[in-house]
Amino acid sequence: MPESPALYPKIESFDQGYLKVSDLHTVYYEQSGNPTGKPVIYLHGGPGGGVSSHDRRYFDPSVYRIILLDQRGAGKSTPTAELKDNTTWALVEDIEKLREHLGIDKWVVFGGSWGSTLSLVYAQEHPDRVKALILRGIFMLRQSELRWFYEHGGASNIFPDAWDEYVKPIPENERDNFIAAYHKRLTGDNEEERIRCAKAWSTWECSTSKLYVDPVEVAKASEDIWALAFARIECHYFFNKGFFKTDAHVLENVDKIRHIPATIVQGRYDVVCPATSAWDLHKVWPEAQFEFMADAGHSAKELATTARLVQAADEYKTL
Ligand SMILES: CNCC(=O)c1nnc(C(C)(C)C)o1
């Protein structure tokens, strides 16, 4: 797959660390770019997706102090794939603990997909700590969004071939609620079944995140450790409705952040987190910059999406 020319060059981190955030959880973080630069935190998707060195490249390393965080149970954070005490609200607290640990007052917050959910919720809880928001592939964890992608009748109509693989681990009599059926198996005692279901769940998402299926992305879904963390943590959050009290929690709290500079970038043909969520967010937040990328699906690695995200980060250098 061609790499976007908009990305900044590959760089190494200058600092890596582990922060104990509870009796059970320790989260991994790293810093790259300019140690005295303008802080930006990158919030990965999933939840459970983890960060990679690629995620450093949206930001000008001469200007930004780039912070990547593996959320609870994801990536290098430990315990791997742990679901106990793993909630949206715990992650928001972890981000604040990391900010204080690093001696940061305010930062730019960048997130796509679940990362957009977490970015929005963090900003709504701590608006005074957010200099700007850069959001991609809007996901607000509403039941309509979950039904679209994880139950029959939505994305299954666009990728019927990949869907037939996704349903295979689940018996016919449980196919009226895939999230519940997968949750039972992903949290069950049968290790072989856990891994088989984790790979099927993860392959479904990785096979549908770009306009042109990216074999590198799909191959990730066959890695036991990554697939277990991604599938277990995602399904745990979805089964628990994001730990929100109301279905439209994120939309209901947009007024808390309408003053914050923001850019929303949405792939027109995003099958994972369809455009309707980004449009709903735009309609209640007209102050935020908003752009549909005409030739893009869900992934931040779509060429047009990458370019627009880098442009947004460049724009916020002056803040
Ligand atoms: C609703 N979950 C989609 C999500 O947040 C996500 N993050 N990364 C991915 C891929 C690994 C499939 C690109 O999806």
Automatic annotation (TrEMBL):
Enzyme superclass (EC): hydrolase
GO-annotated biological processes: proteolysis
Keyword list, A-Z: Aminopeptidase, Cytoplasm, Hydrolase, Protease
Location of the AB hydrolase-1 domain: 38-301
Main location: cytoplasm
Subcellular compartments: Cytoplasm
Gene Ontology CC terms: cytoplasm
Catalytic site positions: 113 (nucleophile), 270, 298 (proton donor)
Recorded superkingdom: Eukaryota
EC number(s) per entry: 3.4.11.5
Catalytic activity, reaction form: Release of N-terminal proline from a peptide
Gene Ontology terms for molecular function: aminopeptidase activity
Family of the protein in this entry: Belongs to the peptidase S33 family.
Protein name: Proline iminopeptidase
